[in-house]
Hints:
Elements: E1 3-4, H1 7-24, E2 29-35, H2 39-54, E3 57-59, E4 68-73, H3 78-89, H4 92-97, E5 102-107, H5 113-122, E6 126-130, H6 138-146, E7 152-154, E8 160-161, E9 174-178, E10 180-181, H7 192-196, E11 200-201, H8 204-216, E12 221-225, H9 242-250, E13 257-261, H10 270-278, E14 285-287, H11 295-300, H12 307-320, E15 325-332, H13 339-352, E16 356-361, H14 379-402, E17 408-416, E18 424-428, E19 433-437, E20 446-454, E21 459-463
Parallel strand pairs: 1-8, 2-3, 2-4, 4-5, 5-6, 6-7, 9-12, 12-13, 14-15, 15-16, 19-21
Antiparallel strand pairs: 10-11, 17-18, 17-20, 18-19, 20-21
FE3-S4 cluster binds at residues 37-38, 40-41, 74-76, 108, 191-192, 195-196.
Amino acid sequence: MPVTVSDEQLQSQFTYIDAIASMNGGKKLRAYTHTFGCQQNEADTERIRGMLREMGYEMTDDVNNADFILFNTCAVREHAEDRAFGNIGSLSHLKKRRPEVVIALCGCMAQQEKNVEKIKKSYPQVSLLFGTHALWRFPSLLYRVLTGEKRVFDIGGEDDIAEGLPVLRAQGPKAWLSIMYGCNNFCTYCIVPYVRGRERSRRPEEIEKELRELVAAGYKEITLLGQNVNSYGKDLGLDIDFADLLQRLNAVPGDFWLRFMTSHPKDASPRLFDAMAECDKVAKQLHLPFQSGSDEILRRMNRRYTAAEYRALIADARVKMPDITLSSDIIVGFPGETEQDFEQTLQLVEDIQFDLLFTFLYSPRTGTPAASYEDNATPQEKQNRFERLLKVQDDIVAKRQAAYQGKTLRLLVDGTAKGPDYPYTARTEGNLLVCVRGEGIEIGSFIEATIEKTSLRCLFAQKR
Ligand code: SAH
Ligand code: SF4
Ligand code: F3S
C-alpha cells in the first residue's frame, strides 16, 4: 500500500496557511506561477495555487507585479531546463529593485542535486526551492522564508500521497485528475522515474470522490493522469486495475467525457480496450507512445515491447473502436539509431496513420543509462530525420483532417478562438481542435456542429 501523508502532518500545513494569511492581513498580495512540462506538473501547480489562495494571495499574469513568483519546472529535455534557467535569470533585476519579492522554484528540475547546486551558487534571487516530494509542505517552507530565513531548500521526502490539499483549477470546462504518481519503468532515456519516485496509486474511493466533485462543479472533460495509467492499482493490493477503475468512474452520473494519459504499450491490453469500448463516457481517444519502430532501439530504450506487439494493440483497439483517435510520442536520434532503424519508425507512422504525433529529438539526461550510450549519428543527420518524419506526418494529418469535411460531430466548447470568423474553440471526442461559429454558443457546453472546412491544425465547424 502506498504511504499517505497523515492527517496531523497535513493539519500542520493548514496551520502555516492560516499563519501566512494573518501575516498578510489586509495587504493585497499577488502570486504569479509559470508551469513547464506535462499535465502532472499543471495539476501540481493547481494545488500550489490553491494553497496560495488560502494564504490570501490573488493570482496575477503579470510577473512584474507579483509578490510571490513560482516556476514549476520540467527536466525531461535540456530545452525545458534551459528555458527555466533563462526565466529565473531574467528576474535578477526585479529582485534587486524589489528585494521583498519571493522567487521560488519547484518541480522535476528542483528534485535534482545538480540543479540545486547550480541554483545555490549562481541564482541568488531564488529564495525557495522544493522538489516534487515536498509539494505538500509548501506552506511551512514559504512560512520560513516570510519569517526571515534567507534561503530555504527542501528536496527531501518520501514516495507518498497527500490527499485533501486545496486546489485552484484553470478556467474552463476541463480538469485534471491525478490517479497515480511516479513511474517504475526506467526507460533508459528518461529522467522522470528519478525525479518523480516510484509508482503509487490513489485509492479508488478518493478518485471517485474527486470526480463526483468535479462533475458537480460543472466540469465536462476530466483527464485521468499518471505517467503510466495502465499499471494503476498494482501497488494497492485491492484487486482493482485500470480497466476496473474506468468502469467504476464511468458509472458516476452526469454528462461528461473521461480521458486518460499516458498509457504504456507494455501494459495496455485488450481488456483495457474492451473497457473503453463499453464505457460511454470514456472518450474514444488513445495516446499510446511507441518511441521507435525499431525493435533493437526499443530494446535499448528498455520499453519491453516490439513494433509487432504495438501494431497488434492498435489493430485490436481499432476493431473494438473503429473511430478511435490515435496519438503517440516518438524520439528521433536515440543513441545508435541507424538510418534503417529510423526507416522502421517512418514505416510504422505510415502504416498506423496517427491523428497526432509528438516528436522529440533525443536529449541526453545526466544520470540515465542512455546518456552514456555510444552515439554515432551527427546532429545534422538527426535534424534531417526529424524533418523527414514531420513531413510524412503532415501529409497524413492533412488527409485525416480532410476526411472530416461535412461530418456532424458532438463537440465540447472550451474557449475563445483568435480569428473573428470562428470565435470559439472546441474539442471532438477524439480531442481534435475545432474552431466553431453559430448562434448561442456557450463555453462549457456540448454542441452538435458540422465541419465546413479543415486545415492541418484545426477543423472549422458551424453549430447546428
Ligand atoms: N510517461 C509517459 C511520457 C513521459 S515524458 C510515457 O511513458 O509515455 C513524454 C515524452 O517525452 C516521452 O514519451 C518521450 O517521447 C519524450 N522523452 C522523454 N525523455 C526524453 C529524452 N531524454 N529526450 C527526448 N525525448 C524524451
Ligand atoms: Fe519515462 Fe518511460 Fe516512465 Fe514514461 S514510462 S515516464 S518514458 S520512464
Ligand atoms: Fe517534465 Fe516532470 Fe512531467 S520531467 S514531463 S514535468 S513529470
